[in-house]
Design brief:
heterodimer; A: mainly beta; 1 helix; B: mainly alpha
Chain lengths: ~350, ~260
């Protein structure tokens, strides 16, 4: 009978509809993660189901990993280089991969985490610090053996920073933690008021700066764990504040770019752009560069004057990366993965993978 | 596709979460109760139709029609006579369909509301926070606490006991059991050969399918299924207590002169 037949088909329709949208959500989980090695001139890009090694001058691909597409391999965190030539790739499959940075061959893997890696690991000579969405920071030796873990209450999405012998970790549980970098013992923690999804920035005089989804930026004295000042922003702060020469540059989801005095937290200038800013502004050669969700790449002088605006015609997220004389921009929402522009805003090259992303 | 349901679902779910001490499991349970209350008239109609169809199996006229028009060549005539009898007795044979049709977008919306609320990637979180226009003080709630009892509501549920080398899908098992009982209540129990066979097949097929969905998708969705099934079973027993309604009571003795 028709009703019984329909009721039989119904669960299949349900599974089909659930599955049809499920895959696309993970594939568009985040934007490309880019890193640049000044010594070798290599560019590394993590996007979707592969990590790529590109030449800086023309964006040509040298190698990609994995060579054959693997269903479970997905990565977006910018790959990180060790001193001995390992490339650390953090995956959505709960695995940290060590590859040979020269040819992409596999060295070792660490599979001790229980959730996705969203943020990149921090590399120091003796210890690799890997933040995971299971809320734990995993400290490994250079061969991938676990040394210790530190647990927070919610996912860790951002790369920690080192301030002398203190490791500063920002968590989506609203807190900033200071740990002994060698053994992971907590020194202090403080509630920053909102979830923190990106890394702190560091000044020369021992302060870290964090932006939160509670619409503020705070300066924290690492030595005492106390807040020096807090500045309220118009929108949620997703990307890291950028510290340069006693000034702080911040973008928010309202598209506002703000320059602050890093010592007092006083606003120096602010400019409204047309799209949400999810990354840290880049300060390079006396200019400030930001990218926003409206596809704009904007160059400011240090006093907040817009010098040029380029539109890439795609939603762009994250931060521009300085690589030689170029700015590398992750464009993950079209068939182009990375676009390189010069410091006048002209496109130099675009990377489109030959292999499926 | 279902944004017009998913967005309100997400907002209401998060609002309930904010009222219930940031407990997402409780928020799903309470939200399911609300959904059942709103769909109560449709579910009541389904139960009424199911009950009427069950009682129809013992109606002498029904049995007469089945006997008279059996065989493939009489299918069309059989269908016509059945429809006439439905109309005569005031039974809506499609009364079971509407609630089932309504359930489909509700399941899809609930799955996406849970997935979005427990945003696991940066783009998911960005989309999620932008869709929360009804919830006050959102920044204090983000990210939502996904732990409930032993489960992570954003992941498939498994209970790990030290002495067993694999995780036990407790919720999937509960979904199967509760789906079985709920389906059994809705299907005819009369030992008419063909319909009893089909009824038995449905009693197994639906619970297994729902258990499979619960096994592979997030624990939050499985929790919704269990809660909805338990409420459905409770509703059935509450509505079953009064005597059968006048419209659907069928005479058991043929009329005599």
């Amino acid at each position: 009978m028709m009703i019984k037949r329909f009721t039989k088909i119904l669960p299949i329709i349900v599974i089909g509809l659930l599955l049809s949208s499920c895959g696309s959500d993970v594939a568009a989980g985040s934007w490309p993660g880019i890193s640049f090695d000044e010594k070798t001139g290599n560019v590394y890009v993590a996007f979707g189901q592969a990590v790529y090694n590109l030449q800086l001058d023309n964006g040509a691909e040298r190698w990609h990993y994995p060579a054959e597409r693997q269903a479970n391999f997905t990565t977006f965190a910018s790959p990180q280089l060790t001193e001995d030539g390992q490339l650390l790739v953090a995956g959505y499959d709960q695995t940290l991969y060590s590859l040979d940075s020269a040819d992409g061959s596999s060295n070792w893997t660490f599979a001790g985490a229980t959730n996705r890696y969203i943020g990149s690991p921090l590399i120091t000579p003796d210890i690799i610090y890997a933040p995971n969405s299971d809320g734990k920071l995993y400290a490994l030796d250079p061969n991938g053996s676990l040394l210790w873990t530190f647990a927070t209450e919610q996912p860790l999405w951002s790369q920690p920073v080192l301030v002398g012998t203190v490791l500063v970790v920002s968590s989506t549980d609203h807190k900033v933690y200071a740990l002994d970098a060698q053994n992971g013992e907590e020194i202090w923690s403080l509630d920053a008021g909102g979830a923190i999804v990106s890394s702190p920035s560091v000044s020369e005089d021992g302060f870290v700066f964090v932006g939160t989804l509670d619409q503020n930026v705070s300066a924290i004295d690492v030595g005492t764990g106390s807040v020096a000042w807090t500045f309220g922003t118009p929108g949620w702060v997703w990307g890291s504040p950028t510290y340069s020469d006693a000034q702080l540059y911040v973008g928010d989801l309202e598209g506002t770019v703000i320059a602050l005095d890093a010592t007092s937290g006083r606003e120096i200038w602010s400019v409204d752009t047309e799209g949400a800013i999810t990354g840290a502004p880049l300060v390079l050669n006396d200019h400030v560069y930001v990218i926003n969700e409206n596809g704009q790449v904007i160059s400011f002088t240090l006093d907040g004057t817009i010098q040029w605006t380029k539109n890439i015609e795609a939603a762009i997220y994250g931060s521009p990366i300085a690589a030689g004389d170029l700015l590398l921009i992750g464009v993950g929402t079209t068939d182009s993965v990375v676009t390189a522009v010069d410091q006048n805003g002209d496109t130099v090259w675009t990377f489109v993978p030959a292999t499926p992303k | 596709m279902f944004e017009f349901i998913i967005v309100p679902f997400t907002n209401v779910l998060v609002f309930i979460y904010s009222l219930l001490g940031h407990n997402f499991g409780l928020a799903i349970i309470v939200f399911t109760l609300l959904v059942r209350l709103i769909t109560y008239p449709f579910n009541a109609q389904q139960m009424k139709s199911a009950k009427a169809m069950q009682e129809l199996q013992s109606n002498p006229k029904w049995k007469q029609i089945q006997e008279k028009y059996k065989g493939k060549e009489n299918r069309e005539k059989l269908a016509q006579e059945q429809m006439k009898l439905y109309q005569e007795l005031g039974i809506n044979p499609f009364g079971a369909c509407l609630p089932t049709l309504i359930q489909l977008p509700l399941i899809i919306a609930m799955y996406w509301a849970i997935t979005r609320a427990l945003a696991a990637t940066p783009l998911q979180l960005l989309g999620f926070v932008r869709g929360l226009s009804w919830v006050p003080d959102v920044s204090n709630l983000i990210p939502l606490n996904s732990r409930f009892l032993w489960m992570d509501l954003g992941q498939p549920e498994r209970l790990y006991l030290g002495f067993i080398p694999f995780g036990i899908p407790v919720l999937a098992i509960l979904v199967m059991i509760t789906s079985y009982f709920q389906t059994k209540m809705m299907t005819p129990s009369n030992p008419n050969d063909q319909s009893a066979q089909m009824g038995k097949a449905m009693n197994l097929y639906m619970p297994i399918l729902m258990a499979y969905i619960s096994y592979i998708y997030s624990a939050g969705l499985a929790l919704y299924f269990v809660t909805s099934n338990v409420l459905g079973i409770a509703q059935y027993y509450i509505t079953k207590r009064p005597a059968a309604t006048a419209k659907t009571v069928v005479p058991t003795k043929p009329k005599t002169n």
